[in-house]
Design goal:
The complex is a heterodimer of chains A (67) and B (327). Helices cover 57% and strands 0% of the residues of chain A. Chain A contains 2 helices and no strands. The radius of gyration of chain A is 15 Å and the shape is extended. Chain B is of the alpha/beta class. Chain B is 32% helix and 14% strand. In chain B, the strands form 2 sheets. In chain B, strands 1, 2, 3, 4, 5 and 9 form a 6-stranded mixed beta sheet that branches. A 3-stranded antiparallel beta sheet of chain B has the order 6-7-8. The radius of gyration of chain B is 21 Å and the shape is globular. The N and C termini of chain B lie far apart (54 Å). The chains are: A mainly alpha (67), B alpha/beta (327). Chains A and B meet through helix 1 of A and helix 8, helix 10 and helix 12 of B.
């Protein structure tokens, strides 16, 4: 149980750091879902994929083949 | 600034003791505005020690870099102390390492120096480029006095001082065993103005700024090696299985490395600014570290390297932590 709270601290900092560097922070999502909440899990995944599709692929990190 | 004679005398007194392995301090550099770290094993070695406004290096990194070889069966561990000459910010680094159990309090002996601000080598080299001879710098009230090309120059402190020193909140070491000179109290306060300006910009502008900075990174890892807080036995960047970040030098990998470095220092970085000083490409790494410092201060009311009583930031939590980002 405690692990969730430790992770919460880390995630909020990472989210802010992403925004500071110019990466859309919607790409990182933290949600609390119990093992019994199958429907919620499906809903969250659906909204995340929908949202990320809207933002489009992250071009900043593309590796160009230079050879 | 403290008198050098007093410092040498104190160091000699320390080296005369049985339980001291060596003392780390500063000595005259070989060229320009450089000072070198110096390791004194005997009392004669202590005569090389100096302290001037040029002593910007954070010496807290050296005990962490020292290689500890595995012991043979009949060997006993060397538990003698290591003496370190520390300024305000260096003492914070030592404190944070002790807090994280990176080293033991009883294994270090801190010689505290109340510091009134050190010179940024970049700023002074811009002002007086191509100095082959070693130059001595003195401090005189609110001016730095130096002799360059036979002429005595007096320069206001704010022009040459580190940015971190302009906002320094702890000029007197927080943790020390022996203090050389008088305690100084500071009324300055960090205002994070630069970071706030950058925060306000749009995502595209921010990315443009940072990608331009990270593009220049040559991945020499000097920022890691010089950082007193980077003392992991095996750095993630050195691991081959799994290979977290590729070796190639492009924006993608460079950004990954720089995010990783900054994020691992979240809530641990004490803001000595050594990473930026060591960076051969002049990437403003303190802007990254300061941002994390600011967030941590605002959200968790936590300042790294403050006292030995507190726990490391990520080793504790409170039910009242921010959670509006969790959907």
């Amino acid at each position: 149980m405690q692990g969730n709270y430790f992770a919460r601290r880390r995630m909020v900092i990472l989210k802010k750091l992403m925004e500071y560097l110019g990466i859309d922070s919607r790409r990182l999502r933290m949600t609390w879902i119990s093992a019994a909440e199958g429907n919620k899990f499906a809903d969250v995944i659906k909204t995340v994929t929908k949202e990320v599709k809207e933002i489009g692929p992250l071009q900043n990190f593309r590796r160009n083949n230079e050879w | 600034m403290v008198s050098v004679e007093k410092l040498r005398e104190k160091v000699k007194g320390i080296l005369a003791r049985e339980d001291i392995k060596y003392v780390i301090g500063y000595e005259k550099g070989t060229y320009g505005f450089r000072v070198s770290p110096s390791f004194a094993f005997t009392q004669e070695d202590a005569d090389r020690f100096i302290f001037s406004p040029l002593c910007a290096n954070n010496l807290a990194v050296y005990p962490m870099l020292e290689e500890k070889l595995p012991l043979r069966r009949d060997q006993k561990e060397d538990i003698r102390k290591v003496g370190i000459v520390v300024k305000g910010c260096d003492s914070k680094a030592v404190l944070q390492i002790i807090l994280e159990k990176g080293m033991k309090r009883e294994n270090v002996l801190l010689i505290g120096i109340p510091c009134t601000g050190v010179i940024d080598p970049r700023k002074i080299e811009n002002k007086f480029p191509h100095q082959a001879e070693n130059v001595d710098v003195r401090e005189d009230d609110d001016k730095f006095v130096l002799i360059v090309d036979g002429k005595t120059q007096e320069i206001p402190k704010d022009e040459l001082m580190y940015d971190k020193c302009i906002y320094c909140e702890n000029p007197t070491p927080i943790l020390y065993d022996i203090l050389v000179g008088e305690e100084i109290h500071s009324t300055k306060k960090e205002d994070y103005e630069k970071i706030k300006v950058l925060e306000e910009k749009s995502l595209e502008d921010k990315w443009e700024y940072w990608s331009k900075q990270f593009e220049r990174c040559i991945r020499c890892y000097a920022c890691r090696n010089v950082c007193p807080m980077c003392y992991c036995k095996e750095c993630m960047i050195d691991q081959l299985t799994p290979l977290w970040v590729r070796r190639s030098r492009n924006v993608s990998e460079n950004t990954a490395w720089n995010i990783m470095r900054a994020y691992h220092l979240a809530g641990r970085c004490i803001g000595c600014g050594e990473c930026e000083r060591a960076c051969p490409m002049g990437i403003p790494l303190t802007e990254l570290n300061k941002k994390l410092e600011k967030d941590v201060k605002e959200m968790f009311n936590y300042t790294p390297g403050k006292s030995l009583e507190q726990k490391p930031l990520f080793a504790m939590f409170s039910p009242e932590d921010p959670q509006e980002f969790i959907l």
